[in-house]
Amino acid sequence: MESPRQSDASSPVEPCSPICVDTPATQSSVLFDGNLDDLLRNFPLHQYILVTGGLGFIGSHTTLELLKAGYNVIVIDNLSNSFQSVFDRINLLAQKHHEEQGTQMPALHLDAHDYRDTAALKALLEQYQIQSRWGSPKSNIAGVIHFAAYKAVEESIRNPLKYYANNVSGLVDFATTLGEYGIKTFIFSSSATVYGTLATSGLPLKEELCAHKDEVFQGVDGLDQTVKAGCTGITNPYGRTKWMCEAILADLAASDPEWTIVALRYFNPIGCDESGLLGEDPRQTPTNLLPVVVKVMTGEYMELQMFGTDWETEDGTAVRDFIHVTDLARGHIAALDAANAENLVENFRAFNLGTGRGHSVMEVVDTMESVSSKRIPTRAAPRRPGDVGSCVAVATRSQQELHWKTEKTLRDACGSLCKFLEVGSLSFP
Ligand code: NAD
Ligand code: WQD
């Protein structure tokens, strides 16, 4: 797709270009030029959050929530699995929110390139660098949320090097460059897939079960349990890329206390913004449950194949911890706030982002039928290779340490998808 490499949403807050000076005098003149209410409501006006993959399914919702919360955002996305028009929709929704609230719209910029393009990345980071004659480099970019990655499990089995190159090698170079510019607050998109077959071991899926150093925690019997660092049973190369990235980031944090790194292990993100204007609209053919259900609802697919009706679950279909994408997006803000407030237990910390409650594939279909008043034809099909019967988070660590919990239900998610079908075209361009 042809697109301008850099797009700016109109905003009263311009990037510090080309260089900002970190003297108290400059900061105070920036601060007191504005209205005090705005100042208190907003994240420091001169600071930005860099979001890679910010036009994708989860990235677009997180960018919107960041803007609503008053953060200035720079998005890097190469549009390999998203569309430029998502940028306009995020901007529209954020503008509308701030108009309604009577608050100031933060800045939003898009750099449409590969996050692995180090020359383009450096050119971008130069613009936000704070010139300092002494000490380590500083930046007006106060944190990075890194979504950009490939995520199709089946493709990762066929073409593992594509996945290791983008998800793992890309991360190594990216973190190296960020470090050179003094940007060391990093939120990483991990996945429940790192638990692999542990999901069906009968053990509650606590973060300690899959860790990068030996962990001692209280087991279900109330006794201390020691788990050795490492993870076994990951079922595909995509899952391994997520585990490897976590391990690399844990090593980086251990080597340099200036880094604060959070790995967020998402369970099954579903739904979309309540406006219906953002959604899950990948260029690749979707294989996840809800996007397939949506295609059945639009008539694009005849029926939903239910992969596995003989699992050891109440109705025989697989159980997952479905989390509304808006809740998930807000989890990133909670993580960012905790990281920047230095409120984390250690400078590399992994968190499950899930509801802590499971729903079966059949329950999803029933709920969608009830919300949409449409019949969704289904057909029992054999288990999909690599699937597990049940995968549900223990969500207490994120509740206690990030002060975040989910608010939306499976019904809310189905309702938002119906709205997406109504108002947001399924094809974005
Ligand atoms: P997505 O494909 O919708 O979004 C990823 C975005 O990154 C896309 O807009 C794509 O164009 C962009 N991108 C990919 N490679 C890039 C590169 N090299 N440079 C610049 N941009 C690039 O995926 P998503 O569902 O939003 O997932 C976001 C992240 O969350 C991924 O890291 C994924 O592995 C992780 N995750 C997703 C799920 C899920 O079920 N959706 C679950 C757990 C973890
Ligand atoms: C859920 C359930 C399917 C489609 C995947 C990745 C995981 C993470 C989230 C990124 C399963 C069943 C599905 C269909 C069906 N992604 N299903 N018919 O497999 O739990 O997790 O996405 O990190 O890594 O593996 O999610 O939505 O694909 O499937 O019956 O047409 O729905 O078999 O039991 P999954 P899913």
TrEMBL record:
It comes from the Eukaryota. InterPro entries: Epimerase_deHydtase, NAD(P)-bd_dom_sf, UDP_G4E. Its cofactor is NAD(+). Keywords: Isomerase, NAD. This is NAD-dependent epimerase/dehydratase domain-containing protein. It holds the Pfam family Epimerase. It comes from Aspergillus cavernicola. Coiled coil: none annotated. Residues 49-342 form the NAD-dependent epimerase/dehydratase domain. The keyword Metal-binding does not apply.
